[in-house]
Amino acid sequence: MGQKSAKTAGVESLSSAKESRFDAILDSAETVFARSGYEGATMREIAERAGVAQGLIHYHFKTKEVLFEAMVSRRSQQINEGRAALLDGILKQDQTPDLEPIVEALFRPTIEAGISQASNGGAFAQILVSTANSASEREQLLTEKYYDPIAQKFISAFMQVEPGLTRANAVWAYMFAIGVGMTMMAKTGRPARLSDGLCDDGDADEMLTKIVPFICSGIRALT
Amino acid sequence: MGQKSAKTAGVESLSSAKESRFDAILDSAETVFARSGYEGATMREIAERAGVAQGLIHYHFKTKEVLFEAMVSRRSQQINEGRAALLDGILKQDQTPDLEPIVEALFRPTIEAGISQASNGGAFAQILVSTANSASEREQLLTEKYYDPIAQKFISAFMQVEPGLTRANAVWAYMFAIGVGMTMMAKTGRPARLSDGLCDDGDADEMLTKIVPFICSGIRALT
DNA sequence: AAATACTGACTGAGTGACCAGTTAATTTCT
DNA sequence: AGAAATTAACTGGTCACTCAGTCAGTATTT
Predict the structure, then answer these.
(1) What distance lies between CA A209 and its chain's CA centroid?
(2) Contact call for A167 and B195, based on CB within 8 A
(3) Distances A155 to B22, B175, B195, B200 between C-alpha atoms, Å
(4) What secondary structure letter does DSSP report for A121?
(5) Which nucleotide has the least CA–C1' distance to B55?
(6) DSSP letter at A92?
C-alpha cells in the first residue's frame, strides 16, 4: 500500500512543498474523522475537503476502514518515533534518571504533532483519545498494533527508575498516566467552563506543568 | 417529556418487575449506543433489541438525539444523586475529612450503576467516557448540563479538604481525576493485554485500591 | 368513546463502494 | 532520439443499500 515514493522530491521537500493528493486525503481524513468520528465521517466530505474526486480515495485506500488505519498509522509512527527517541535519550544517562522527564516524553511528541500540523487544531490527538477509550474491535486492534509496543517501553522505564513498582503497578501507572493525558488532548473546553476561564486546555505547556507533577506523585504512591 | 409516570407501580417495583417498553427502549439504547457510538448506532437495532417497532421509539422520543439525551439523563441523574449523597455524608463530619473518601465518592456510584444493571456490562460507563472526551457540540452540551453541576461540588470539596489548592488547581485536579477514572470505566481490556493478564480492568474494586491513592497523591502534588 | 400505546409499511436523503473511461507519467522498443 | 505500449492517477456518474423519520391505521387502556 501507499504511494510510489516521493515523486515531487528534489527541489521542494520541506514545509510548504505542494503535497501529493495522497497526503492531502490523509490530512483531510484526519480533520473529518476527528470532528465526526469514524461512523459520522463520510467519504464525500473527506474527498471534498481534500479537493479530489471521491473515487480517488477508493483508488488509493480501497475502503473507509483502510483509510482510517492508514491515517492512524502515518501519524502514530511519527509520534512514537519521537517518544522512543526522547525516552532512549533519558535512559542513556549514567545515573538513574528522574521520573519527570520520562512522563514528559510520553506526551510532548503527541502535543507537537498536533501543533506543527497547521490549522487542524490537534485533530489527531482527538482521534487518539476516542480510539484509546473505545471498546470496539477495530479501535482496540489499532491501539494494540500502533501503541502497545511503545507502551511497554514506558512501563519498563517506570520500573527502572522507580524500583518499588511491581510490574502490575507499573502497568496501572501507565494506564492512569495516559488517562490524565487524555484530559489535555481531548480539548473539550471543559476546564475553562468549570473555572470561569482560569484554566485553558488549549495551552499545552501550562497543562504539562500541572500534569507531570500530578502523574509522578501518583505513580510514586503506587510504590 | 417522558412516560406518564409509573403505570406498572404497585405490586412489582423491584428487581424483576416487567419493565415498561419505554424503559426497555432506554435500556436497549444504552447498550447499542455504547457498542456503536452515536452515529454508529441505528434506530432499527435499538428497536429490535428492545423488542418493539421502530416507530414506537419515534413515538416516545421523536428523534435519535432526544433518545440519546433521555438515556443519558436517566442514568446520570441516578449516578449523580448517589455521588452527591456520598459527598454530603463525608462533608457533614465535624473534623476536616480526608481526600480519599471524596475521590472514592466520585467513582463508586458510576461503577455500581454499571454492575447493578444486569447484562449490559458497564455500557453506560462507556458512553460516559466517549461523551466526556468528545469535542463535538452535542456531547459537550450534555456534559455541561448533566455533569458540570456535580463537578463544581467536588471541586469545592477538594479545596475544602486541601486548603493549599488554588481554584485553578482544584479544577485541574478534578479533570485529571476524571481522566484517571476513564481508564477504569472504558473497559478496553488493555491493562490485561499490557500485563499478560496481571491487571484486570473488569475488577472495579481492585482498580479503586490503585486509583484512589494515585489521584490523592497527585492532587496533593498540586498544593 | 376518547385517549394513549403501538405497528408495519413506507419515503427521501444519504451512504460506501464500484466502474468505465480519460489523462498523465513512465517504460520499452526501435 | 522519438514513437508506441504500459502503467498509474484520477474523474463523474451510478449502484444497491441503509438511514432516520413519517403516517395511516390498529390494538389497548381508561
Answers:
(1) 19
(2) yes
(3) 47, 23, 10, 16
(4) T
(5) C7
(6) T
Listed in sequence order, the residues at least 6 apart from A104 whose beta carbon sits closer than 8 Å to its beta carbon are A86, A208, A212
Chain B residues inside the 8 Å CB shell of A222 = 210, 213-214
What does each C-alpha distance from B28 to A66, A189, B22, B68, B185 come to in angstroms?
A: 30, 31, 10, 11, 19
- pLDDT tens readout for residues A127-148: 999 999 888 888 999 999 999 9
- Distance CA(B218)–CA(A222), nearest Å, equals 11
Non-local (6+) Cβ contacts of B141 within 8 A are none
Query: In terms of residues, how long is chain A?
Result: 223
Instruction: Answer whether 0.85 is exceeded by the pTM.
Output: yes
Q: Per-residue confidence of chain B (223 residues) as pLDDT tens digits?
A: 444 433 333 333 333 345 788 999 999 999 999 999 999 999 999 999 999 999 999 999 999 999 999 999 999 999 999 999 999 999 998 799 999 999 999 999 998 887 666 557 788 999 999 999 888 888 999 999 999 999 999 999 999 999 999 999 999 999 999 999 999 999 899 999 999 999 999 888 999 999 999 999 999 999 9
Sign of CA dihedral B41, B47, B51, B57: positive
Residues A100 and A219: their CA atoms lie apart, in Å, by: 11
> Residue B188 has which C-alpha cell?
478496553
Amino acid at A102: I
Mutation target among A32, A33, A145, A182 for the B interface, most CBs of B within 10 A: A182
Q: Which helix (H) or strand (E) holds B27?
A: helix B21-40
Does the distance separating the beta carbons of A135 and B188 come in below 8 Å? yes
Taking residue B189's Cβ as centre, other Cβ atoms within 10 Å add up to 16
| A54 CB closer than 7 A to any strand D atom | yes
Distance CA B211, CA B192 (A): 16
Residue with cell 479503586: B208
